[in-house]
Amino acid sequence: MKSNSEHWNSIFSQEHSTLGWYEKDLTPTFTLLNQIETWKSSTIFIPGAGTSTLVDTLLLENTKLVLNDISIIALNNLKERLGKQNIDWLCQNIAQPIQKEIPIIDIWIDRAVLHFLIEEENINGYFDNLKSHLRIGGYAIFAEFSKKGATKCAGLTIHQYSTEELSKKLGTSFSLISSFEHVYINPNGDPRPYIYVLFKREE
Fold first, then answer.
1. Taking the complete model, does pTM exceed 0.85, yes or no?
2. Which runs of consecutive H residues, i.e. helices, occur in the chain?
3. Cα–Cα distance between 20 and 134 in angstroms, integer?
4. Model confidence over 36-87: pLDDT tens digits?
5. In DSSP terms, which residues pair with 194 in a beta bridge?
6. Within its chain, how far is the Cα of 142 from the centroid?
7. Which has the closest alpha carbon to 108: 131, 86, 90, 85?
8. CA angle 157-158-161, nearest 5°?
């Protein structure tokens, strides 16, 4: 059986526009991001950057980025595409403690990463990282498979989420700002129901 990093390295060896989550239209993410007045001057952490074009769009606004992925191939593809930019790079399982010193985070953007964590220990490790590095007054954005969504993605079983479950995992120090459902149509033409949720850390 492949390790998680080997699994994702194999996937990101493919052309990124053919991947099942490739997204030309970033409107759902920016619907939430634009509710944060200061986002263009923020430090943004993406726990699973993959090869997403969201990164390119954020860099156009001169945001400071901290990009993580479990796949070194995904990160190398991004580095080749982006060139020398003001980015902090991490390559690790986001369920494990972040060992490298990184900037304090203003905004945490998770686009379909959390739902790949199945074991409770890994889910808790993920949220420990978020709470350890997101500043008070910062924001967390999630885009995850909803309870109406698929049960597998990229050959892996996933954990479907509701807004209520995300709220419970974050705890009482986070307040819900906005949420909506969105059906993403993947490159194969298949519908994938998601939830998009924005939280603010109050304390």
1. yes
2. 4-11, 27-33, 54-60, 72-82, 120-133, 163-170
3. 29
4. 999 999 999 999 998 888 999 999 998 999 999 999 998 998 899 888 787 9
5. 145, 182
6. 7
7. 131
8. 155
